[in-house]
Amino acid sequence: MLFRFLIAVCLFLSTVFAPASASAGDLLARADTRMPGAPAFDPEAVDISRVLVRKSERRLYLMADDQVVKSYRISLGDNPQGHKLYEGDERTPEGDYTLDWRNASSDFYKSIHISYPSAKDRELAHAWGLNPGGSIMIHGLPNEAGDMAFAYQGLDWTDGCIAVTNEEMDEIWQLVSNGTPIRILP
């Protein structure tokens, strides 16, 4: 699979070109994700009213009313363009859903479930004789990523989920409540 080849290439390049003192954590260090000009972030003082995903930008936004509170770089499914149509198409759905439950012990670092498929999604897939799939989540990296965590950055690698770093997942987990609406745009 192409993804495994890319991971192998990234691992090789990181050992050849990274300074001897650089760790995987150093390679994963990210810039502050606050919007320019935003005040210092206080998680206790914010109420996230919705989540907005713009697939074409590879961004997830935590919103308080119409104000962007936080922004994250995301990875999508291996086949990111278009709405999810059926199980196995590796697309991330588009539309309005709800973040309805969470799993602290998932195969990926924490996960929050997106309420896909909707009744409309099921109806469309069944009309074609297909299973719409499910288990679409916002989650962190695979639990076994270890020192290879840096290789996932900037790639679309999920089966249709929305992925962030583990540190970002901790923050989203804390800030977003079950029942929060999520809109996923192309």
Automatic annotation (TrEMBL):
<comment type="similarity">
    <text>Belongs to the YkuD family.</text>
</comment>
<feature type="active site" description="Proton donor/acceptor">
    <location>
        <position position="139"/>
    </location>
</feature>
<feature type="active site" description="Nucleophile">
    <location>
        <position position="161"/>
    </location>
</feature>
<keyword id="KW-0732">Signal</keyword>
<keyword id="KW-0573">Peptidoglycan synthesis</keyword>
<feature type="domain" description="L,D-TPase catalytic">
    <location>
        <begin position="49"/>
        <end position="185"/>
    </location>
</feature>
<feature type="signal peptide">
    <location>
        <begin position="1"/>
        <end position="22"/>
    </location>
</feature>
<dbReference type="InterPro" id="IPR005490">
    <property type="entry name" value="LD_TPept_cat_dom"/>
</dbReference>
<protein>
    <submittedName>
        <fullName>L,D-transpeptidase family protein</fullName>
    </submittedName>
</protein>
<keyword id="KW-0808">Transferase</keyword>
<dbReference type="Pfam" id="PF03734">
    <property type="entry name" value="YkuD"/>
</dbReference>
<dbReference type="InterPro" id="IPR038063">
    <property type="entry name" value="Transpep_catalytic_dom"/>
</dbReference>
<keyword id="KW-0133">Cell shape</keyword>
<keyword id="KW-0961">Cell wall biogenesis/degradation</keyword>
<comment type="pathway">
    <text>Cell wall biogenesis; peptidoglycan biosynthesis.</text>
</comment>
